[in-house]
Amino acid sequence: MSCPRIEVDLCKIRHNTQTLVKRLGLRGVGVTGVTKAVCGHPAIAQAMLDGGATALADARIRNVQRLRSTGLTGPITLIRTPMLSQADEVVQSCEASYNTEIPVISALAAAAIRNGSVHGIILMVEMGDRRDGIFPEKLAEIAQQVRQMPGATLEGIGANFACLNGRAPTASQMAALSELANEIERGGGPSLKIVSGGGSANLPWALGGHATGRVNDLRLGEAILLGVEPLSGERIGGMHTDAFTLVAEVIETGAKPAPFPIALIDPTTERLRIKPAGGAPALMILALGQQDTDIQGLSLPVGTKVVGATSDHLVVGTNRSPLSVGSEMKIQMNYNALMHAMAAPDIEVSLLDDPPTGLPKRTQGKFEHLVPV
Asked: Using only C-alpha atoms, what is the Rg of the chain?
């Protein structure tokens, strides 16, 4: 098999999705599987759907088009505010999109009329993350404008948390989101189908003791793909954290000198040699670099560590016997590393679909309540 590559265990992704769908279902909350970190990979998206996700979502129209090109016909929502220049493409590929700007919504409505369809609009509300969103005091007014647009239908509202400011939502913020949904409905028109309460960082709230109110959807990517809670990085009990493995090939091995270890062999001949650095760990160079992934987001096997990286080389130190040239090293990734690696043109994606050997051990600590009973 070629290197570098990402080995994807679809069975573990299905399991992670099933686990979250079951737990959230008991709280009246559905799961939308987010495929942006895997660039809309069709097989990974299908694993989410097979695991019980009710719909898919992505941030880039190119990824959605990739999903559609393989024949996937289920609902897909664009979760980044559409670019005005892509209104026609959005309407042709997505049943709905998250929006904050009336000019964009107007363009989507006009594109839907040209396309002979009606485009679903979900209004994103600014609830403290300071990224995208309509201020709450403007929400009812904009909702009313959307209701009056032919070609568009107001399907719901949503919010982001912990995306930009890194802060988990509070119970009061989530209660306020529910109240905003109620306020919009009091203004007339049909009931909102979707009140989307955020992403993977909302799991502690959604699975805790708080009332979920009107929230009936979470947009989950990182929790499904990596089995962790984003803010703490802690494993969610009963979830697989190794559905993705980055595999890189060793292209050089052996000791390297410390900086400037040059010494004279024979002062009369002025010939030079490299003086070995005593006690230095053995080094290996992998055919992987900063063009391929976020080096800071890699977790190497026990006994090895990153010494440094350039655009095309990853230098790894080990206190064990180094691997031989041509050998492969398996590496785990965090969310940022996964996103970059999946988008890298020189990394192959290899799909595995073997039954999982067993569930991870029970999670300890503050996310212990996420373990199934």
From this structure: 25
Tell me which fold the domain 244-352 belongs to: Elongation Factor Tu (Ef-tu); domain 3 (2.40.30)
- pLDDT, tens digit, 9 for 90 and up, residues 240-273: 999 999 999 999 998 666 555 545 455 554 444 4
The CA distance from 354 to 50, in Å, is: 15
Half-sphere exposure of 367 (CA within 13 A, CB side): 23
For 113, counting Cβ atoms within 10 Å of its Cβ (0-12 exposed, 13-18 middle, 19+ buried), the class is middle
What are the structural domain ranges in the chain? 10-226, 244-352
Cβ contacts of residue 255 below 8 Å, gap of 6+? 276, 277, 280, 282, 283
The structure's pTM equals: 0.87
What's the CA gap between 214 and 176, in Å, rounded?
A: 10
Residue whose C-alpha is closest to residue 232's, from 64, 368, 332, 97: 368
Residue 278 CB contacts under 8 Å (≥ 6 apart), including other chains: none
**CATH superfamily label, 10-226:** Alanine racemase (3.20.20.10)
d(CA 81, CA 268): 72
Q: Measuring CA to CA, how many Å separate 64 from each of 3, 42, 55, 99?
A: 27, 9, 12, 17
Give pLDDT tens digits for 169-180: 889 999 999 999
3-state helix, strand, coil in the chain (%, to 5): 30, 25, 45
CB 130 within 8 A of CB 163: no
**How far apart, in whole angstroms, are the C-alpha atoms of residue 344 and residue 327?**
22
